[in-house]
Design a protein that fits this description.
Its main location: membrane. There is one protein chain. This protein has a single domain, classed as MetI-like fold (Orthogonal Bundle). It is 64% helix and 1% strand. It has 13 helices and two strands, in the order ααααααααααααββα. It has a two-stranded antiparallel sheet. The two termini are 42 Å apart. The relative contact order is 0.15.
């Protein structure tokens, strides 16, 4: 029997069913660790230490979050984390895009050598001690700008944006140049709007890195509590909680968030789960708005038109 136009064979249907089942299984495997962390963070710490917590808390309580968030430094460090993420991402994306546009221009004779120099930085660096001494000479120690300036231009970011720019038809830029537009105006009015998917992809990478970074705080600003970030404060809380459970007084507990039988204790496991949720939530909230650009940037950024 000859298949009519639009009809699908049994093999195609079976492939679609298998593909859907595989993707559902992959999604479940991906989401389960986060769902389990959420359940543990909402469960009483001593009860969770018995095990058996999967997707639903057995003894619901909000004390783990109260214990983490009651630290006075948390909200100050949250402000620093938000500032370094927003400012660092904006400056890094803009500067990386400018460099990418420069090295993508065929009239720039040194573009290959400059690109090679950037690529070499992906494989070699000066090391921890020379980097620290350089930051010290630049007066970046105990400064907010130590979070921004060292990573203002990244080779990987430049490669993604440059690849996308090279896919833009040259006729668009040439038309603007004939109309009297200079390079900076072409970059601002034409290149940046057309590169939105690539810029969003780089912005997501940079924002996640800025938000999750804590080691630079430890190296350069550990002596200045006013410049501490959320990740660094949560790391210190975890170190304090490690080794043994921490007991609190009943007066310190938010009574409305506790179930009957809940204890006034936390454990390293409960603090670790709570920290994971607190640190991941902002990125999870932002990602859906950038997802379509992220997919576009990853698929089109490496293909020339």
């Amino acid at each position: 029997m000859k298949l009519t136009s639009g009809a699908r064979s049994a093999g195609d249907v079976m492939f679609d069913i298998g593909n859907v089942l595989f993707m559902c299984g992959l999604m479940a495997v991906t989401l389960y660790p986060f769902a389990n962390m959420l359940a543990v963070s909402l469960n009483d710490a001593m009860d969770a230490s018995r095990g058996g917590i999967f997707l639903k808390p057995r003894l619901f309580t909000l004390y783990n979050y109260e214990y983490v968030l009651r630290e006075a430094s948390i909200f100050r460090s949250l402000t620093i984390s938000v500032l370094r993420t927003v400012i660092g991402t904006a400056i890094t994306v803009f500067c990386s895009a400018m460099v990418a546009y420069t090295v993508s221009r065929p009239e720039y004779l040194l573009r290959k050598w400059v690109t090679l120099a950037f690529i070499l930085t992906m494989y070699f660096n000066g090391g921890l001690i020379p980097t620290y001494l350089l930051h010290k000479e630049l007066h970046l120690i105990n400064s907010f700008w130590v979070y921004i300036i060292p990573g203002i231009v990244g080779a990987f970011n430049i490669i993604i944006i440059r690849s996308f720019i090279e896919g833009i038809p040259d006729g668009i830029n040439e038309s603007a140049r004939i109309d009297g537009a200079g390079d900076f105006k072409i970059f601002m009015k034409i290149v940046l709007p057309l590169c939105t998917p690539a810029l969003a992809t780089v912005a997501l990478f940079v924002a996640v890195w800025q938000w999750n970074s804590w080691f630079d705080v430890f190296l350069y600003n550990s002596s200045n509590p006013k410049l501490s970030t959320l990740q660094y404060e949560l790391m210190k809380i975890l170190q304090t909680a490690n080794g043994s459970s921490t007991q609190a007084t009943v007066g310190d507990v938010l009574g409305g968030g506790r179930s009957a039988g809940a204890t006034n204790q936390v454990t390293p496991t409960s603090i670790r789960a709570t920290m994971t949720i607190v640190a991941s939530l902002p990125i999870i909230l932002v990602y859906p708005f950038l997802q379509k650009y992220f997919v576009k940037g990853m698929t089109l950024g490496g293909v020339k038109g």
